[in-house]
Q: What sequence folds into this?
């Protein structure tokens, strides 16, 4: 990493993403995760490039590794990775692939791509932080509503609810892409297992911030962030 | 004598007292044997219920948080069922863990195929960086478990079995041991197969090597034994899928004309119940069965 880092605000994300997509027309709304990622990294997560290896940092695990351009754009905007990396997205010698690899991307807590791994891993990370007395460090994981089809997530949701894993936070970006949908809404699946669960507009930064920072003593917390349906 | 599994739960409980970095992760199996340890270390004895995907993924998360997880259930549910979790949530994340299995290939003979994992070591061979220990006695299991727990952040698989040798040997993690030497070839006995292999080769002028660590494969040790024997005929006697280590023998002897006989459990499903000893005999892995096949192979 020889490059200097430039920091950008939300308005800069569109251009950063276009460096990867080569497409100037698609605005931030083209990416379901962008606003969620921005609010988390801008206002919620206690992690920065200089604390990316601090044992007490907050962890953010991108479980839904598909379509990671918004993630890379936010990591670049916050100075974790150099902007130049975006130009070579998914090239042979690029650290940035279509699915992130934690060993190649500074700031990436996990490698993902196969669905249904990040949330169960996050359970272990939250347990590990608790066992080491690092209760102030919070673990966040981003999943998609279709990703919740994977049974492994339900092992994690039931267990984390049963043991009241307060350090664990899920944001489920819901673009109604699950093949059979979630009857009664995705939040009900978390609530039934004893989680604190709220559903908010996934484009409303203030509503996201409030949902992300709502207290949830003794329980894990799920935020269902609804965005435009993927298939109209 | 206690079993390897009993020794494991006792040793792992003590290790939790000694090393604050360790955590034991369970999926119900053996959980009752960790009740005392769970009282002493409620945050470091974790039973996720009957959820084996979570079992392995949570271990990956614990390791990412800086801990060293010891993960335990039956081999079929530790390696085979959550294989993608083993591959991705440990290997791809670049973190370590100690996986400790019970049941092996045939311990739960009366339980049938659902509880048998003769392919566990072969499956791990498709992945990078796994150390595989196959102790042949509870004392060896204890030594290897202690070694594995303290083995940095390596990915280690410890394969425990009800099947054991009568006496332990001093453990040398990573190296094959010479039990005796002869000029008619080399018999490499893995873990619990040593007693039967020794009995089967009585009166035969063969070298007998003993392995409690099969990965990394001690190719140098094998090569040296073959050199001293003067005969590059190698018989593998493994308590899991026949021929699992054969590619490693070929690699170690790549520039020598050599022959390999891989003996282990059969690929064909044995649709019988009964005891593990009956299964050992049915797979031709008792001394009688071994003697016939080894004698027929040697020149």
A:
């Amino acid at each position: 990493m020889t490059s200097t880092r430039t920091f950008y605000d939300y308005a800069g994300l569109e251009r950063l993403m276009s460096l990867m997509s080569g497409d100037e027309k698609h605005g931030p709304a083209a990416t379901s995760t962008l606003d969620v990622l921005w609010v988390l990294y801008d206002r919620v997560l206690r992690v920065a490039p200089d604390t990316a290896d601090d044992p007490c940092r907050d962890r953010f695990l991108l479980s839904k590794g598909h379509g990671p351009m918004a993630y890379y754009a936010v990591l670049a905007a916050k100075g974790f990775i150099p902007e130049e990396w975006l130009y070579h997205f998914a090239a042979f010698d690029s650290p940035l692939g279509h699915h992130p690899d934690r060993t190649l991307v500074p700031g990436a807590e996990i490698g993902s791509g196969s669905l249904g791994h990040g949330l169960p891993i996050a359970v272990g990370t939250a347990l590990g932080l608790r066992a080491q007395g690092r209760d102030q460090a919070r673990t966040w994981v981003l999943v998609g509503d279709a990703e919740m089809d994977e049974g492994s997530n339900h092992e994690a949701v039931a267990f984390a609810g049963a043991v009241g894993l307060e350090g664990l936070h899920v944001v489920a970006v819901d673009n109604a892409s699950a093949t059979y949908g979630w009857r009664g809404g995705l939040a009900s699946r978390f609530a039934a297992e004893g989680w604190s669960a709220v559903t908010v507009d996934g484009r409303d930064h203030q509503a996201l911030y409030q949902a992300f920072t709502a207290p949830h003593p003794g329980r894990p917390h799920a935020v269902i962030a609804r965005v435009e349906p993927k298939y109209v | 004598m206690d079993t390897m599994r009993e020794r494991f739960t006792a040793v792992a409980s003590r290790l939790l007292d000694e090393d604050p970095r360790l955590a034991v992760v369970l999926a119900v199996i053996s959980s009752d044997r960790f009740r005392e340890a769970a009282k002493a270390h409620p945050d470091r004895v974790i039973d996720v219920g009957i959820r084996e995907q979570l079992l392995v993924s949570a271990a990956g998360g614990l390791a990412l948080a800086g801990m060293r997880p010891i993960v335990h259930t039956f081999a079929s549910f530790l390696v085979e069922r959550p294989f993608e979790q083993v591959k991705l949530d440990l290997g791809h994340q670049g973190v370590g863990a100690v996986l400790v299995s019970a049941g092996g290939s045939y311990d739960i003979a009366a339980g049938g195929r659902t509880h048998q994992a003769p392919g566990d070591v072969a499956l791990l061979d498709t992945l990078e960086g796994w150390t595989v220990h196959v102790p042949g006695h509870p004392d060896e299991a204890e030594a290897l478990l202690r070694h594995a727990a303290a083995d940095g952040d390596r990915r280690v698989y410890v394969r425990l079995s009800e099947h054991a040798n009568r006496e332990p040997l001093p453990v040398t993690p990573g190296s094959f041991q010479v039990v005796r030497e002869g000029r008619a070839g080399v018999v490499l006995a893995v873990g619990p197969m040593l007693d039967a292999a020794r009995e089967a080769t009585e009166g035969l002028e063969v070298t007998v090597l003993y392995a409690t660590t099969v990965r990394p494969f001690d190719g140098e040790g094998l090569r040296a034994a073959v050199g001293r024997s003067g005969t590059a005929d190698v018989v593998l006697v493994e308590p899991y899928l026949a021929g699992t280590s054969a590619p490693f023998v070929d690699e170690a002897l790549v520039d020598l004309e050599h022959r390999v006989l891989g003996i282990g459990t059969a690929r064909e499903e044995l649709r019988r119940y009964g005891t593990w000893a009956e299964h050992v005999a049915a797979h031709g892995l008792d001394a009688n069965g071994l003697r016939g096949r080894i004698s027929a192979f040697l020149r």
